[in-house]
Amino acid sequence: MPRENTTQGISFTPTLLSQAKTRAKEKGLSVSAYVQQLILSDLADDETRLDAAALARIKALLMELMELRQSNGRGAEKRGS
User: Fold this and answer.
1) Alpha-carbon distances of 34 from 37, 38, 40, 44, 76, rounded to whole Å
2) Among residues 30, 40, 45, 66, which one has the fewest Cβ atoms lying within 10 Å of its Cβ?
3) CA separation (Å) from 31 to 23, 42, 65?
4) Residue 36's closest CA among 16, 54, 10?
5) Dihedral in degrees, nearest 10, Cα atoms 50, 48, 66, 78
């Protein structure tokens, strides 16, 4: 039976590795999963990628939503509370 994952050695500068570990931890991922996620994102079809303008628009809409929720007294709620 073939293995699902194959190990590939990758070299990092100490600074880059430290930054990658920090970012992976922030995302709740292992460094391996974080690198896999980055590669998968890079290899995604152009149609599935969001350009900078789309990401900026999404961010603006999320900020607007947060402001609306706060003005309605719902900004600090957590789901399931």
Assistant:
1) 5, 6, 10, 15, 29
2) 45
3) 9, 17, 32
4) 10
5) -140
What's the whole-model pTM score? Answer: 0.52
Cα angle at 12 between 11 and 16, to 5 degrees? 165
Q: Per this entry, what is the length of the chain?
A: 81
Q: Which residues contact 20 (CB under 8 A, 6 or more apart)?
A: 12, 31, 34, 35
Residue 79 has a pLDDT of 53
pLDDT digits (tens, 9 = 90+) for 27-56: 999 999 999 998 888 887 666 667 788 888
d(CA 66, CA 71): 9
CA–CA distances in Å: residue 70 to residues 60, 67, 75, 81: 15, 5, 4, 16
